[in-house]
């Protein structure tokens, strides 16, 4: 049987290319993209109907959802952020995030709330998980940073349709013709960029 696995260097090269592309965006372009994301959220029926939404804090040139988080708070939505727990490596917890949450940085240098298990909920209790990504294509395939955290989190949704709906967030420049896939990759049913919403479901 032929080996159909994607050469690791192909994924690595694409990851490096698109990371550099998004980091090349100016501060003004980043701010404009963040405001356009707010506009997309305002017109998104699923976001408007959701009560508990997981997002992330931008790192490495990612599309910044912080203005959208402030809008969600104004709509009385509960916002959750991923936390890397010390007791289950390779997995994510989702913890309530408010304007007064004590913050720290995880081992990757990314801001996250200080772990407080009383503020953590099962990810199945979320309505939507907004995922960062490095690259995506017009079929909804997502290339992440390579840690597999979101693929593990979304496995039950991908295999059984259970749990929160995943929603990818990306800059327009992160779209590529084809994302090289692996068997563990979880394609997304929907991706939002500043320019448009992509619905693959």
Word description of this protein:
The chain has 201 residues and is α/β, with parallel strands linked by helices. It has helices at residues 8-23, 27-42, 45-49, 66-74, 149-153, 155-160, and strands at 52-54, 78-83, 93-97, 103-105, 111-113, 120-121, 128-131, 135-136, 142-143, 165-169, 190-192, 197-199. An eight-stranded mixed beta sheet has the order 6-3-2-1-7-10-11-12, with helices on one face. Strand 1 (52-54), helix 4 and strand 2 form a beta-alpha-beta unit. Helix 2 runs parallel beside helix 4 (66-74).
Topology record:
Layout: H1 8-23, H2 27-42, H3 45-49, E1 52-54, H4 66-74, E2 78-83, E3 93-97, E4 103-105, E5 111-113, E6 120-121, E7 128-131, E8 135-136, E9 142-143, H5 149-153, H6 155-160, E10 165-169, E11 190-192, E12 197-199
Parallel strand pairs: 1-2, 1-7, 7-10, 10-11
Antiparallel strand pairs: 2-3, 3-6, 4-5, 8-9, 11-12
Helix pairs in contact: 2-4
Family: Belongs to the 5-formyltetrahydrofolate cyclo-ligase family.
Binding site for ATP: 11-15, 142-150
Pfam family, one: 5-FTHF_cyc-lig
